[in-house]
Amino acid sequence: MEEVSKNILEEGRILLFNKPLYWTSFDLVNKIRIMISSATGLKKIKVGHAGTLDPLATGLMIVCTGKATKKIEELKNLDKEYIATIHIGETTASFDLETEVDGKYPVNHITRELVQEVLTRFEGSQKQVPPMHSAKFINGKRAYEYARKGISKELNPVDIVYRELELLSFGIPETIIRLLCSKGTYVRSFARDLGVALNSGCHLSGLERTAIGSYSLAEAYTIGKFAEFLDQMQQNRK
Predict the structure, then answer these.
(1) Which of 62, 77, 97, 148 has an alpha carbon within 20 to 30 A of 55's alpha carbon?
(2) Can you list the positions of beta strands (E) in the chain?
C-alpha cells in the first residue's frame, strides 16, 4: 500500500479496501469519506466505488477519490475473482443467506468428480439470469423491492463469461470454488445454476472477492489500517 498525502487524495487516488461483512458498499464509501474529511480538513471531496459488493460478502472494493472518480466506469469493466462457499442440497429464494431455506434436495449422488465435470460446462460465455434479490431495475424499481414484497417478476438473462472455475475444496454440504468471471456476474446465480446442473439445489453461503483486474485483496486496506495511515499522515503534517 503506497503512501498517500492530502493533496494526492484530493487530486485523485485509487484506493483498495477489504469490505467488512454486513457492510453495504455505501457504508464503506461513506465511512472513507468521513475519515478523509476528518483527517485532512477536506470538507468536499469526491469519493466513489468501482463496483458494489453485497452486505453478506467480504473482500476487495476499489474506492476512488477526487479526480480518480472519472476512472470508475473503466474499473467496473474489469474481471472479478471470487472465492465462493456453496451450500449443496438446499436452496433459498435469494440464492444466499439473506432468506430462509425454501427447498431441500438429494445429495447422495454428488461426488467430487461430478462437481468437477459440471464446472467444465460452465466455462466460457453464458447467459445468466440475475437474482430477483438484486439491484437490477425493473420498470424503474430495484428487483429486490418486488422480491421483498413477494412479487415475482421476470428478469432478462445477461451475457457473462466464466474465465476460470477451480474446485478448491469438495464437501457436503459445503464446497468451495474459485471463480474468475466477467463484470455483471452474480455468484448467487452461479450457485443456483450449479444446483440445477447437479440435479440438486444450492445456495451461496459465503463469498469473498479476492481480485478486480490486476488489483488484489492482498494489497487492500482494512478500516483499521486506513485509520492508522491517516493518523500517520496527520502526524507528518505537524
Answers:
(1) 77
(2) 12-19, 47-49, 58-66, 80-88, 90-92, 101-104, 124-128, 137-138, 141-142, 158-169, 174-181, 202-212, 215-216
Give the architecture-level CATH label for domain 6-76+215-237: 2-Layer Sandwich (3.30)
What cell was used for 157?
438473462
Output DSSP code: residue 220. Answer: P
The whole-number pLDDT of residue 119 equals 98
Domains 6-76+215-237 and 80-212 share a fold: yes
Question: Global pTM?
Answer: 0.91
pLDDT tens, position by position, 36-86: 988 888 788 899 999 999 999 999 999 999 999 999 999 999 999 999 999
Residue positions annotated with a catalytic role: 54
Name the grid cell of 88.
Answer: 449443496
C-beta separation of 166 from 177 below 8 A: yes
Q: Tell me how far apart the alpha carbons of residues 211 and 80 are, in angstroms, rounded to a whole number.
A: 6
**Domain limits, the chain:** 6-76+215-237, 80-212
Domain 80-212 has CATH 3.30.2350.10: yes
Confidence of residue 1 (pLDDT cuts 50, 70, 90): very low
| 192 has pLDDT over 60 | yes
